[in-house]
Amino acid sequence: MMGDKGDKEINVAEHLDKVINKALNALEKGKKEIFDIAETTRNECQKIERELLNLKQRAVELIKEVEHLEKHAKNARYKLMIVSRNFNKYSQEDIKEAYDKANQLQISLSLKRAEEKQIRLRRNELEIQLKNLMENVKRAENLMSQLSVITGFLKGDMKDITLQIDGIQKRQLLGAKIIQAQEEERKRIARDIHDGPAQTIANVVMCSEVCERLLDKDINKARQEISELKNNLRGVLQELRKIIFDLRPMLIDDMGLVPAIKKYLSIFEKQNNIETSFSVIGNERKLPSILEVTIFRILQEAINNVKKHAKANTVFLKIEFNNDYVTMLIRDDGRGFDTEKVFNDKKAGIETFGLMGIKERAQLMGGKLEIYSKPGKGTRVFLKIPLDNFDEESKNESYQRK
């Protein structure tokens, strides 16, 4: 009987593995198809953008041609009027020639105006089409993100987490939080790249096409465009370096937590014109890598909230190193907010996601994070993480000198 039960459990497990593998294959196939659709749509967007650029250039040329024809048509009509009034002075052939010329110019003018109208209509159609295609790309990206969450969950190995957490509900909750944090970080990175370097590079490609056309027409204008291209590329490089720094500040690995914070605050102060003050209490030392990254990420989110919402003039930061714990205090003199109202307002869920995220980061490290704020009284963020939550190897590492 025991053997039969064991065989049944094995069969169930094997069957479950097959079901999951089929689901994963279907999801991966769906992701690939959605990706292909998104890429095709992006290529169509680029074609439309190029056509729009050509239409705009043609529209400028038509405006000049219409103005030129209007001037000549006006002169031709005036000459026809003079010839018609002085038929005794001019021959029948002169009158016919003046009439034919005025009529021909009027026909050319009507054709150019009709072409200009068609270009405007085509431009409007393309702009609407481009907007719809970009919305389709955005929907495809969101769908791929959702499929990635499901795929990541199915692929995840929960055995190590099971050994540390009691109860299936806690295991599922932690797994969901980890996956959610990963996907939010991926979405943020994708958004930063899409809104920054990707847009600039797309503009560089279009400008390079303009330069190619200008090289044979206006070399000075081409030089100006090339100079602008270089400036745009420098901006792309700067944005990419910032994204890389946000992904993993290398100063943490090379020099430790405190130098990385000093560098970050220096950049923040220059870019936002907000004065910062930083002090360290206790013996500064190397902490476990995961703890240093956690503290730095909490600092980033808190400082980012100051930049977005606080309208502060000064930010004060203090870190204290103790044998048993490490604390961090971030205080600003901004406008503050009603913490009870913000955290209890369901409609503000998206806005408070960052604050909830740093609380969860602290809790995962066995610490706690408290936020104090009142309207007009600024905001204080206090973090405390005990070091005895780490294993002996990590704790020994934390006592090493810098």
Which overall shape is indicated by the principal axes computed on the Cα atoms?
A: elongated
Strand content: 5-15%
Average pLDDT confidence is 76
Q: What CATH architecture of the largest domain do you see?
A: Orthogonal Bundle
Number of helices, where a helix is a run of at least 4 consecutive DSSP H or I residues: 11
User: Alpha-carbon distance between the termini?
Assistant: 62 Å
Number-wise, the strands total 5
In CATH, the topology of the largest domain is named: Helix Hairpins
How are the strands ordered across the major sheet? 1-2-3-5-4
What's the helix-strand series?
HHHHHHHEHEEHHEEH
Biggest sheet, in brief? 5 strands, mixed
Helix proportion of residues, in percent?
Answer: over 70%
Poorly predicted parts: 5-10, 157-171, 391-402
- Count of the separate structural domains: 2
Radius of gyration: 33 Å
Your description of this structure?
The chain is of the alpha+beta class and 402 residues long. The chain folds into two domains: 2-156, Helix Hairpins (Orthogonal Bundle); 250-398, Heat Shock Protein 90. The protein has eleven helices and five strands; from the N terminus they run H-H-H-H-H-H-H-E-H-E-E-H-H-E-E-H. It has helices at 2-85, 92-155, 159-164, 168-215, 219-247, 250-254, 257-272, 289-310, 339-344, 353-364, 392-398, and strands at 275-281, 314-321, 325-332, 368-373, 379-386. The protein has a five-stranded mixed sheet with strand order 1-2-3-5-4. Helix 4 (168-215) runs antiparallel to helix 5. The longest helix is centred in the N-terminal third of the chain and has 84 residues, at 2-85. The model is unreliable at 5-10, 157-171 and 391-402 (pLDDT under 50).
